[in-house]
Design a protein that fits this description.
The protein has about 240 residues and is an alpha+beta fold. It has two domains: about 90 residues, Ubiquitin Conjugating Enzyme, CATH 3.10.110.10; about 130 residues, Alpha-Beta Plaits (2-Layer Sandwich), CATH 3.30.70.100. It has six helices and eleven strands. The strands form three sheets. A five-stranded mixed β-sheet has the order 10-5-7-6-11. The protein has a four-stranded antiparallel β-sheet with strand order 1-2-3-4, with helices on both faces. A two-stranded antiparallel sheet has the order 8-9. Helix 5 packs across helix 6. The longest helix has 30 residues. The radius of gyration is 20 Å and the shape is globular.
Length: about 240
């Protein structure tokens, strides 16, 4: 498997990718994000799960099962044991998830509810290593299957993301804990001047972005039009003009 780790003041974040072979006639690539708090292993880690081969419900089931196992290993290092456990039991977890989904479908008698899609609007103060920073944001959005825009207008830098709530939260963890930029001396550093302007569920009047794009705007009016096209006029009016003051 493959992993990256990001040391931080309040613990460590691990990004781990593992491939489970011969599952449902295909290989499944699991993308796991572990955040180990400073009092780990006395406290279970935060865990997020993503996979292109699994549904959102299956990823949530894998996460729940990993947290259940983590509670059995309190006060002892557990990440390696959790990885081994999910490699051995993923097939059973997915089968159980399918059973639960079928039961819910039967109970609903044909009615269905749309999975909640969330939206996140971030403001960045600056990017010193712009090319590297942009490439990193694009990769995170792709890995977490998030759509939206990275927007530049003068000195204003905004990141607008849409996707599963768990993926939005995973993105925030990466944005806060990774060394994405450089300081005035050229040394790699974390993003310390980011503001979360808005984090909310996507409403029916909003239009979904189909892709993630990096765009530059020469005027505020051009930027405003981008928001208006997505049905986000109120979001723009509330949060963007104050940034110019």
């Amino acid at each position: 498997f493959f992993f990256l780790y990001f040391p931080e003041m309040n613990g460590i974040s691990f990004r781990i990718q593992i491939t489970v072979k011969e599952l449902l006639d295909t290989d499944v690539l699991l993308k796991l994000l572990f955040h180990l708090p400073v009092n780990y292993p006395s406290t279970v880690p935060d865990i997020s799960v993503n996979s292109d081969q699994l549904t959102r419900a299956q990823c949530m089931e894998v996460k729940d099962k990993l947290l259940e196992q983590a509670k059995k290993h309190l006060s002892e290092p557990m990440v390696h044991d959790l990885i081994l456990w999910i490699q051995q039991h993923l097939k059973d977890v997915i089968k159980q998830s399918a059973t639960v989904c079928n039961e819910k479908t039967t109970l609903s008698k044909g009615t269905s509810t749309e999975d909640g899609i969330w939206m996140l609007l971030l403001h960045l103060d600056h990017m010193r290593a712009k090319a590297k920073y942009v490439k990193t944001v694009e990769k995170w959005a792709s890995d977490l299957r998030l759509t939206g825009r990275l927007m530049f207008m003068g000195k204003i830098i905004l990141i607008l993301l849409q996707g599963d709530r768990s993926s939005i939260k995973d993105y925030l963890i990466l944005q806060k804990t990774s060394k994405v930029d450089v300081d005035s001396s050229g040394k790699k550093c974390k993003e310390k001047m980011m503001s979360v302007l808005c984090e909310t569920e996507v409403q029916s009047q909003y239009k979904r972005f189909q892709t993630f794009e990096v765009k530059e705007y020469s005027t505020l009016k051009e930027l405003q039009k981008e928001f208006e096209t997505a049905g986000l006029t109120t979001l723009f009016s509330e949060f963007v003009p104050p940034l110019l003051k």
